[in-house]
Backbone:
């Protein structure tokens, strides 16, 4: 069931499909809002997260600022979810780079070609 993001009584509420957004990315995103906002993540239904943020200081946030905050939160959720996807997709490569960095040269090979022609274009 799709639920529209909204602002109710000074609280920004965003709904995120749990099939699209990982719990890790939601919590990482909400961590950055914790300094200035009361934050909450809960389940709206079986497959939808309900994310809410409310400014600690209501005086500073009029309706226009709350709309901007809603748009920023929507962008940040996508950003952190994308970071999570990239991290998972590149995990093997990062593991290999770390292993190579700490291998003490055990697997080092001399590069092909001459120093003056490292790619091997000169016959």
Residues:
């Amino acid at each position: 069931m799709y639920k529209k993001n909204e602002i109710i009584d000074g609280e920004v509420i965003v709904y995120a499909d749990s099939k699209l957004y990982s719990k890790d990315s939601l919590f990482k995103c909400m961590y950055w809002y914790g300094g200035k906002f009361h934050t909450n993540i809960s389940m709206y239904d079986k497959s939808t997260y309900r994310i809410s943020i409310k400014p600690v200081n209501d005086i500073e946030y009029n309706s226009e600022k709350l709309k901007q905050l809603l748009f920023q939160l929507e962008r940040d959720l996508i950003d952190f979810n994308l970071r999570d996807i990239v991290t998972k997709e590149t995990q093997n490569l990062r593991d290999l780079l770390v292993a190579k960095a700490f291998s003490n040269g055990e697997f080092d090979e001399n590069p092909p070609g001459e120093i003056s022609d490292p790619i091997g274009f000169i016959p």
Notes: The chain has one domain: 7-101. The first strand starts at residue 6 and ends at 8. The domain at 7-101 is CATH 3.30.70.60 (Alpha-Beta Plaits).
